[in-house]
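Batch manifest, entry 17 of 40.
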Amino acid sequence: MANRKEDEKNERIIRGLLKLIENRRCINCNSMGPQYVCTNFWRFVCTTCSGIHQEFTHRVKSVSMAKFTSQEVTALQEGGE
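Output type: structure tokens
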């Protein structure tokens, strides 16, 4: 039960981060509405750039499909790297 609440909290935080002006565009190509996170750099990326990152063997997680741990959310809030 606590795990589900933590997952919901983490999802709310990530959705909130996506609403910030600096996260509304892909960090790589500047397209609107990124829906993925490159976990190598903890940055939001678009679908196209997520595929390119995967070609470089970077780990990419979907904002809508993946579960994020509290540590991952903290890294994303801090901007990674």
